[in-house]
Amino acid sequence: MKLSELLDRLTLEEKAGILVGVGGPHMFPGSRVPGAAGETHPVPRVGIPSFVLADGPAGVRIEGGCCTATAFPVAVMLASTWSPEIVEKVGRAIGEEALAYGVDVLLAPALNIHRNPLGGRLFEYFSEDPLLSGVMAAAYVRGVQSTGVGACVKHFVANEQETGRWGLDTVVSERALREIYLRAFEIAVKEGRPWAVMSAYNKLNGVHCSENEWLLTRVLREEWGFQGFVMTDWGAGEDVSRQLRAGNDMIMPGGEDKVKELLEAVRSGKLGMEVVDRSLERVLRVLADSPAFKGYKPSMKPDLEEHARIAYEAAAEGLVLLENNQALPLPADARIAFFGTGHVATVKGGQGSGHTHPPYVSTVLNAARERGLRIDEEVAKTYEEALKDEMPNIEQSFKDEPDKPTLSENFLSESIIEASAARSDAAVVVFSRVSGEGYDLTPEEFYLSSDERWLLEKVSNAFRSAGKKVIVVLNIGNPVEVASWRGLADAILLAWQPGQEAGRVIVDALTGRINPSGKLPVTFPRDYAHVPSWTFPGEPPDNPKRVVYEEGIYVGYRYYDTFGVEPAYPFGHGLSYTTFAYKDLDVTLTRGEVRIRFQVTNTGKLPGKEVAQVYVRAPKGRLDKPFQELKGFKKTRLLNPGESELVEVTVKLSHLASFDGSHWLLEKGTYEVRVGSSSRDIRLTGYFTIPSEERFTRLE
Ligand code: BGC
Questions:
Q1: Distance (Å, rounded) from C-alpha 470 to C-alpha 492?
Q2: Nearest CA to ligand 1 atom 5
Q3: Extended strands (E) in 200-241
Q4: What are the residues facing 664 on neighbouring strands?
Q5: C-alpha 641, offset from chain centre
Q6: Residue 329, C-beta contacts closer than 8 angstroms, at least 6 positions apart
Q7: 203-204 and 207-208 as β-strands: parallel, antiparallel, unpaired?
């Protein structure tokens, strides 16, 4: 049956039931997938099923009771891989699980920008850079959708904090929106073609995102050519009529009140029937391809073993070696003492709608035992004894989303630490952090707590005075302060929150089975006082109603590089157990594009992968510009010692333009191409010249 005929057969009440859903953690009785975030009402009379929407992005979030789903690395770790290929593979695996469990649309990926290191959901977002965020999100979407399940990119737009998120007015200049916040979505929409977009809770420049016609119709549909449908975030916005008119087609989770509001609005003439039909058409055109519409019977049997391998592979690629003073990798027979409660209570991911119910979580301690490492069992047993009472909560946190137990780090006696230093070859201190939806971190949480610092100082003194190495593993979802304590460690491995394979991946990197190849998708500032988003979390700070993005386009490295502020670790930083050399840069300007070619060679002794980054520095022109901007990147294949790869990156000239208030302006002059291993480790520079300025109405 044609869509138009189907629409003619539906009553107004039935239409409202498709556009206004139901939801909550347990749905309505008879819900097809327990624990999914939402569902639409079915219309069996005309063969329209209900459509099930379930969260991501670190895996399918459904209820643990019936089934488990793989916990993949969190998004900031996926971005740290700088590999769209592995992210697409993760997306496909998540899509397969969604399909197997009866989900039609996955509420992921999330691609808000890392504006401030205290953002409670940064773990769910990719990066401070719109290109890296957009490319990763597009890859994720392609992966999910290759399985026949839809992806929904969220939260559109400028939803960079949790404090006050329901009604917060985010005030952003159009230039910053276009170049940073919208740009990430634009890439994801154009290159990923998601079925759906979720509008954000906040207001954008005074208008709720879900009621914002400029955002949802002019920019998203007319400028970017989006063909799918838009749904609200859960409970966002105020007025159903304004939402539908603005281009927000589905109201989630909706409920009876919202159905009533829609019906009354149509009956009273406040909302035209053509607006309802327009939204319905958009929704049904997309969902006609959904598993439910096609009558797919959930197999309930995803290949969890294969997906565990993919989760491991993705986490392995996203590990970032921040520091290594000849401490790593540890020899296979090294005697290792593990410290920090994080080695027992290893954190797989964040909390809130982004959490997952995996079959297990590999902790650092269990993985070290499983791999047969020579660990200091005496210290390990002391930890297990001390955490005995907390163990049920900790184990529950592996499977579900309980409140994070707050574990103290200062219960070891100094004599235990000293005795361990005498009999071990190295100390590994694991610090774990968790955050989640609904709250941001406090500035104090940016720093090590006093007991974490106490532990690190004691371990560092004892081990180093015995000539032994000290390694810190950061099992975290947000950047933390490192500058004041990194001198106490010989190596720092940033493991983020790696999903269910956490322990295995961390242990394998410590012993060299994995050669870290991840790079930072976000700057690690030296101090919280240095972050450019000083207006976070808005005014008034205890219950903000408004946050002004005063820093404009100067987000992350765009700020630190332009204003000469030294970070602790720059954007794009990440070491390897091998070394790479760059040579033979060739920059060629062709019609509408600049082609950048160079060679990367593994000059060390171990096989490894390098993430080659291409930044462009624009000439001084009419508009202010950041010092440099990421314009392309490529992760090499696994290069053996001595092996090389020819890397080619193509950049459209329009992508070098800046938004001047009405157009994209490509200024004339000489541009510098900066190729390197991080934003501050530039190995090759080249130039090209744009003879005369050009303006673009849109970015293609
Ligand atoms: C979150 C969304 C999520 C939705 C459904 C909201 O609170 O912001 O990211 O998809 O709930 O669980």
A1: 9
A2: 37
A3: 203-204, 207-208, 229-232
A4: 659, 696
A5: 32
A6: 509, 510, 511, 512, 577
A7: antiparallel
Q: In whole angstroms, what is the distance from residue 328 CA to residue 577 CA?
A: 8
Q: Rounded CA gap, 649 and 509, in Å?
A: 30
Interval between CA 154 and ligand 1 midpoint (Å): 9
In this prediction, residue 404 has a pLDDT band, given cuts at 50, 70 and 90, of low
pLDDT 10s digits, 506-543: 999 999 999 999 999 999 999 999 999 999 999 998 89
Helix 130-145 and helix 182-192: axis angle, to 10°?
30
Q: Among the atoms of ligand 1, which is closest to the Cα of residue 165?
A: 8
Q: Ligand 1: residues whose CB is within 6 Å?
A: 37, 55, 107, 154, 233-234, 353, 437
Question: Which residue has 């998540």 as its token pair?
Answer: 94
CB neighbours (10 Å) of residue 647? 20
Report the side by side order of strands in the sheet with 546-548: 207-208, 203-204, 169-171, 546-548
Catalytic center residues: 233
Half-sphere exposure at residue 376, Cβ-oriented, CA atoms within 13 angstroms: 24
pTM score of the predicted model: 0.98
Find the DSSP H helices in 440-479. 450-465
pLDDT bucket at 406, cuts 50 / 70 / 90: confident
Q: Which of 353, 437, 440 to mutate to test the pocket of ligand 1 (most atoms within 8 A of CB)?
A: 353
What is the tens place of the pLDDT at every residue in 643-692?
999 999 999 999 999 999 999 999 999 999 999 999 999 999 999 999 99
Compute φ and ψ for 65, nearest 5 degrees. Answer: -55, -50
Which pLDDT value is given to residue 26? 45
Q: Give Cα separations from 588 to 582, 598, 645, 675 (angstroms).
A: 18, 12, 19, 14
122 Cα to the center of ligand 1, angstroms? 14
List, in sequence order, every residue forming a beta bridge with 471; answer none if it has no partner.
428, 491
pLDDT tens for residues 582-622? 999 999 999 899 999 999 999 999 999 999 999 999 999 99
Model pLDDT for residues 219-271, shown as the tens digit of each residue = 999 999 999 999 999 999 999 999 999 999 999 999 889 999 999 999 999 99
Q: What is the DSSP string of 5-72?
A: HHHHH--HHHHHHHHB-EESSS-STT-SSTT-SEEPPPBGGGTB---EEEE-SSS-B--TTT-----P
Q: What residue owns the CA closest to ligand 1's atom 6?
A: 234
